[in-house]
């Protein structure tokens, strides 16, 4: 057990630390109602993934999939065209509430019809092709490869360089002006250019020097 002097020194040291602690001091310049923003910024991979999923959903569900564009197939009691809706009898007894009143919907059949309508959205194109008797190939609903697809592998083909003056294949590079040229005739033309013209040729392909 330590002596009373050491305990007093330890207590004085802790009191000094609490006195010098800047975190315990009330800061009047801070807003007490401020809360950090809960919204997190998306990185480029997340943005491209959301865009590809949006393109895939738009390709899978075409815009002309309304009831009028639904292909006429064999009715199995689940059609959404309204032909299989239960009608009232002549005396007003049935699914209706009386003569001249609106028909009460059949909830079970409406639920099945809604499920079938969702299924017909994805099968609209194949059924239309079968109804028309056309042998055209049906496009897949899978997302197509675009330049925004982050999963695409980089090209391993060697870069092709072209002449900045003539546009022909350029296997040579002038070390002085950094202009690519096709042959020695173009090289002689490049060396005869006045000052500043070479930078204009480089500006065409974005390789010029920008001084700030």
UniProtKB/TrEMBL annotation:
SMART domains assigned: YL1_C (SM00993)
Q: Which domain of life is it from?
A: Eukaryota
> Per the database record, which ranges form the Vps72/YL1 C-terminal domain?
161-190
**What Gene Ontology cellular component terms go with this record?**
Ino80 complex
For the keyword Nucleus, the answer is yes
Q: Name one Pfam family in it.
A: YL1_C
Could you tell me the Gene Ontology terms of the biological process aspect for this record? chromatin remodeling
Q: Where is this region: Disordered?
A: 52-107
**Coarse class of the protein's main subcellular location:** nucleus
Compositional bias (Low complexity) spans? 77-90
- Matching InterPro entries, A to Z? INO80C/Ies6 (IPR029525), Vps72/YL1_C (IPR013272)
Q: Which UniProt keywords are present, listed alphabetically?
A: Nucleus, Transcription, Transcription regulation
Q: Where in the cell is it found?
A: Nucleus
Which PANTHER family would you find in this protein's record? INO80 COMPLEX SUBUNIT C (PTHR31200)
According to UniProt, the name of this protein is YL1 nuclear protein C-terminal domain-containing protein
The organism of origin for this protein:
Apodospora peruviana
């Amino acid at each position: 057990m330590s002596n009373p002097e050491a305990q007093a020194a330890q207590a004085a040291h802790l009191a000094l630390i609490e006195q010098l602690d800047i975190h315990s001091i009330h800061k009047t310049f801070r807003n007490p109602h401020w809360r950090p923003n809960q919204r997190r910024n998306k990185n480029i991979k997340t943005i491209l993934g959301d865009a590809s999923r949006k393109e895939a959903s738009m390709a899978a569900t075409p815009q002309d999939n309304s009831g009028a564009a639904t292909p006429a197939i064999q009715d199995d009691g689940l059609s959404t065209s309204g032909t299989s809706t239960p009608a009232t009898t002549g005396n007003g007894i049935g699914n209706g509430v009386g003569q001249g009143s609106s028909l009460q919907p059949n909830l079970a059949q409406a639920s099945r019809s809604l499920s079938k309508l969702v299924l017909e959205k994805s099968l609209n194109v194949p059924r239309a092709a079968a109804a028309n008797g056309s042998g055209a190939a049906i496009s897949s609903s899978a997302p197509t490869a675009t330049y925004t697809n982050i999963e695409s592998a980089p090209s391993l083909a060697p870069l092709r360089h072209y002449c900045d003056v003539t546009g022909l294949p350029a296997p040579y590079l002038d070390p002085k002006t950094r202009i690519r040229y096709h042959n020695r005739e173009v090289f002689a033309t490049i060396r005869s250019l006045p000052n500043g013209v070479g930078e204009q040729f480089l500006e065409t392909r974005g390789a010029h020097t920008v001084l700030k």
